[in-house]
Amino acid sequence: MRIGKFALVGLTGLIVGETLLYIFTEFFGIFYVFSGIIAVEFCVVFNFFMHERWTFIDREKKGRWFKRLLKYNVISLVGMAMNITLLFAFTEFLGIHYLISNILAALVVFNWNYFINLKKTWGYDKYIKTPRVHKNPLVSIVIPTYNEKENIGVLIPEIFGVFKKSGIRGEVVVVDDNSPDGTGEIAEKMKAKYRMKVIHRKTKLGLSSAVVEGFEKVQGDIIGVMDSDFSHPPELIPDIVKPIISNQADLTVGSRYVKGGGIKEWPFKRKIISRGARLLAKLLTTVKDPLSGFFFFKRDIIKNKVLKPHGYKIGLEIFVKGEYSKIREIPYTFVNRRAGKSKLGPKEDMNYLKHLVKLYWYKVNR
Ligand SMILES: Nc1nc2c(ncn2[C@@H]2O[C@H](COP(=O)(O)OP(=O)(O)O)[C@@H](O)[C@H]2O)c(=O)[nH]1
Ligand SMILES: [Mg+2]
């Protein structure tokens, strides 16, 4: 396990550091603070080479090692500063005993160091070879529905209108969980007019599993996901798929948290919860709106991946497990649903936390 190697190198570094500190101070008579500074620097360089030769040996070799050393050095020093700051904050503001605080701080900083170095210094995300899509690809949009009778009949024609206007070859896959209000039948009737499939499941089995089931039935090389309640504007489809069609992106995300994006009419409480939820996903992905349910991707990025639909954030699952290199986030404003009721309640917040733990575990073991 890579993170284990990383930890072991860190530990050996500590021993080397201590030894050097002792030697410089006792044998060379250097003031111990200066000895400490020299020892830390030695340590950083020592650890760097261990990581180069061992922890990250399977990377694609590109660029100069000296540049990586520089990055690693800066990240390590920032990490140390973070450690001290957190130690202080945990002790003073949370009233935790300073020895415990230090362990907590070290844990946070260790993880930070690991993930940042993995990505930034040794570039593990960058060198993934992503497939190209060919000219005029088929775009499949998966739409999960549960009691959306007022929306679905309006949404589908709008989507196909957008396809036509923008010259996109598209299909829609509706996954309905036997909605009591008859959404499934409405969708079924529309098949006569539009290129679409309707999957009928027996009971309400949940949003994520519906989407994953949809993925299994799509024909397109590009797959998209959107809600059926108009929270995700169909007019945006061209902006969000075109970067993929032109191979400028492997994954595009409709984003509320990049410049130009936003949310309308959310109460303060929901905004706070959303911010907290976003923060917790911070180390998992660089996507700025990791909880977005409006995204498109090249089918191949999930080719060999097992998607586990825990909770309802299927997007996050793909952002974390997918093999892609180029992401693009397209700003949009999330609006509350046009008609009908939300199906997701507080129970889903717990599911989200469980999902996060699983994804962090996945990432660490990768
Ligand atoms: N098939 C299926 N779709 C669902 C389920 N739960 C929610 N959806 C759909 O998923 C989308 C998002 O759900 P919604 O209730 O709007 O969630 P909110 O926007 O977070 O309030 C909508 O298109 C729903 O119809 C489910 O259990 N099964
Ligand atoms: Mg909704």
Order of helices and strands: HHHHEHEHEHEHEEHEHEEH
Uncertain regions spanning at least 5 consecutive residues: none
N-to-C CA distance = 7 Å
Task: Report the count of strand segments.
Answer: 9
Strand content: 5-15%
Shape designation: elongated
* CATH architecture verdict of the largest domain: Alpha-Beta Complex
CATH superfamily of the largest domain: Spore Coat Polysaccharide Biosynthesis Protein SpsA, Chain A
If you average the pLDDT, what whole number results?
A: 93
- The number of domains is 2
Kindly name the structural category: alpha/beta
- Say what the CATH topology of the largest domain is: Spore Coat Polysaccharide Biosynthesis Protein SpsA, Chain A
How large is the radius of gyration?
25 Å
Q: Biggest sheet: strands side by side, in what order?
A: 3-2-1-4-7-5-8
* Largest β sheet strand count, sense and barrel closure: 7 strands, mixed
CATH class value of the largest domain: Alpha Beta
Number of helices: 11
The unique ligands bound to this protein are: guanosine-5'-diphosphate, magnesium ion
Helix content: 40-55%
